[in-house]
Each structure stands twice: as structure tokens, then as C-alpha cells.
Design brief:
By secondary structure, the chain is α+β, with helices and mostly antiparallel strands. The protein has helices at residues 4-17, 46-61, 91-97, 99-102; strands at 21-27, 37-43, 69-72, 76-80, 84-90, 107-109. Strands 3-4-5-2-1-6 form a 6-stranded mixed beta sheet. It is globular and about 35 Å long.
Length: 114
């Protein structure tokens, strides 16, 4: 079993290390029963979105952590780990869906790079 806070931060670190753009961790635990955290990241191209997804999946699989649900296309990927939901968007889709605005009341966790 994993700690949701630790998994959210680990997810952000993996994506950041793979050069994802604008990696954000939102604590939505006080706002929704959907999850405790959203991790949101962007890729500059469909190829980078796929590379981010592959690296992320591979890193967590090594620790035997697998999503409960996966939804993906060439331009976005959503991985549901129960308490943590990871969104990897092509930058245009991220701008369109603008989850940060929809969840504007969520507390943003500082990145490990801060």
C-alpha cells in the first residue's frame, strides 16, 4: 500500500525528471471525494506525451504500483490510482481543459525543485 501524498510527489518527480512541462500537484482532498491529489503535467508533442506516460508507467511498475483505471489517447493520458489521479496532457489539451482553473480552490503543493 502506498501513501497518497508520497505517490503524488513521486509522480511529479518522475514527470519532472522526464522533462514534462509545468508539473503541478493539487491537493483536492478538502474539495472532493473523487481523489486526494491531482498531478498534472504537459508534453510539447504527442511523442513526448507517450514518452512521459511510458516512463511514468515503467517507474511505478517497478514498485508494483499500477493504476486502477487508465484512459489514454495520443494527446492525453489519465491514470487513476484511487487517491491520486495523474493527468498527462499535450499542452493544447491542457489549456483547453484547464484543470487548474476548475480546481482553483485546491492547495498546490510545492514541487521538489522549489
Amino acid at each position: 500500500m502506498y501513501n497518497p501524498d508520497t505517490l503524488a510527489r513521486q509522480a511529479a518527480d518522475i514527470l519532472d525528471d522526464k522533462k514534462a512541462e509545468n508539473v503541478v500537484v493539487l491537493d483536492i482532498s478538502r474539495l472532493s471525494i473523487l481523489a486526494d491529489y491531482f498531478v498534472i503535467a504537459s508534453g510539447r508533442s504527442e511523442l513526448q506525451v507517450e514518452a512521459l506516460y511510458n516512463e511514468f508507467r515503467d517507474q511505478l511498475s517497478k514498485e508494483n504500483i499500477h493504476p486502477r483505471h487508465l484512459d489514454r489517447s495520443k494527446r492525453w493520458v489519465v491514470l487513476d490510482y484511487g487517491d491520486v489521479i495523474v493527468h498527462i496532457f499535450h499542452h493544447e489539451e491542457r489549456s483547453f481543459y484547464n484543470l487548474e482553473r476548475l480546481w482553483a480552490d485546491a492547495r498546490q503543493l510545492p514541487s521538489s525543485a522549489d
